């Protein structure tokens, strides 16, 4: 039997996003071509960049009235900023990808029955998913099919054993208990992000997909690309799934999931032009 804590078990093995060109604000400056077949475009915003602020009209101008009301009602400053930037980024990137070049605030983004948003403008039809944690925002986009992204700040868990009991199936729980103590916080985060990304990709959420212990994902990094190995109630063949862990920046762990083969991942880091104070 292969060692479940062999190559790829530690955090150092998580694949880092490659260095990419900077992205600048402004419609003509955004080279936002739609993703091609087998492609995922992944955007990252660092909220601890001092040039990013919840007072910046650049983000507010991308929103419609409904978005504005929702974000204005958020009192916690960090949550308010991440929600503002996440929604503003989504609208600006989607608008730049459409041939008609609509104003970001004019896009029709509708929430599905179980909470997953979708852009009704097009063609092309572009699937997207957003996640934020700590000072990081990630936006994933694809044209081939649905996808899910989840990111978490790596941190010690106060109620780690209780969380494992809630989200792990029996096999995963056994592997967790056998893991070295210093690895366990990483394992919880890896398990959580992979399962959350899978559930977000379906667009059904927890209400339909059921509890996370009905879904089994690899805890280690196998030689072949990982994918769900058990998912009660999933209608998509498990062998068609892509499941990939990423380290978008030190101290964070993310997972990307799609019920189709992701062949190319294009990572982009959003930064403001130096001429913009």
From TrEMBL:
Keyword Transferase: yes
Record bears the keyword Transferase: yes
Highest taxon in the source lineage: Bacteria
Single GO biological process annotation from the record: lysine biosynthetic process via aminoadipic acid
Record InterPro entries: 4-PPantetheinyl_Trfase_dom, 4-PPantetheinyl_Trfase_dom_sf, P-Pant_transferase_sf
Coiled coil: none
Domain 4'-phosphopantetheinyl transferase: 146-222
GO molecular function terms listed in the Swiss-Prot or TrEMBL record: holo-[acyl-carrier-protein] synthase activity; magnesium ion binding
GO CC terms in record: cytosol
Alphabetic keyword roster: Transferase
PANTHER family, per database record: L-AMINOADIPATE-SEMIALDEHYDE DEHYDROGENASE-PHOSPHOPANTETHEINYL TRANSFERASE, PHOSPHOPANTETHEINE TRANSFERASE
Family under the similarity heading: Belongs to the P-Pant transferase superfamily. Gsp/Sfp/HetI/AcpT family.
Protein name (database record): 4'-phosphopantetheinyl transferase
């Amino acid at each position: 039997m292969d060692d479940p804590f062999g190559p790829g078990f530690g955090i150092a093995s998580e694949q880092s996003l490659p260095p990419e060109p900077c992205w600048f604000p402004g419609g003509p400056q955004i080279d936002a071509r739609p993703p091609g077949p087998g492609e995922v475009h992944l955007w990252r915003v660092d909220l601890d960049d001092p040039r990013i602020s919840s007072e910046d009209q650049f983000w507010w101008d991308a929103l419609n009235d409904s978005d504005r009301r929702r974000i204005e009602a958020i009192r916690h400053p960090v949550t308010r900023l991440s929600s503002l930037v996440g929604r503003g980024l989504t609208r600006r990137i989607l608008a730049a990808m459409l041939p008609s070049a609509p104003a970001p605030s004019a896009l029709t983004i509708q929430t599905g029955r179980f909470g997953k948003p979708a852009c009704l403008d097009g063609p092309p039809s572009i699937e997207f998913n957003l996640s934020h944690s700590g000072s990081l925002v990630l936006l994933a986009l694809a044209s081939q099919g649905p996808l899910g992204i989840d990111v978490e700040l790596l941190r010690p868990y106060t109620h780690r054993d209780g969380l494992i009991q809630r989200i792990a199936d029996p096999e995963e729980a056994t592997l967790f208990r056998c893991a070295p103590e210093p690895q366990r916080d990483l394992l919880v985060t890896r398990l959580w992000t992979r399962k959350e990304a899978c559930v977000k990709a379906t667009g059904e959420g927890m209400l339909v997909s059921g509890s996370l212990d009905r879904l089994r994902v690899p805890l280690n990094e196998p030689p072949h690309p990982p994918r769900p190995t058990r998912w009660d109630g999933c209608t998509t063949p498990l062998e068609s799934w892509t499941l990939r862990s990423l380290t978008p920046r030190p101290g964070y762990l993310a997972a990307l999931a799609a019920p189709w083969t992701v062949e190319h991942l294009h990572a982009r880091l959003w930064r403001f032009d130096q001429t913009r104070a």
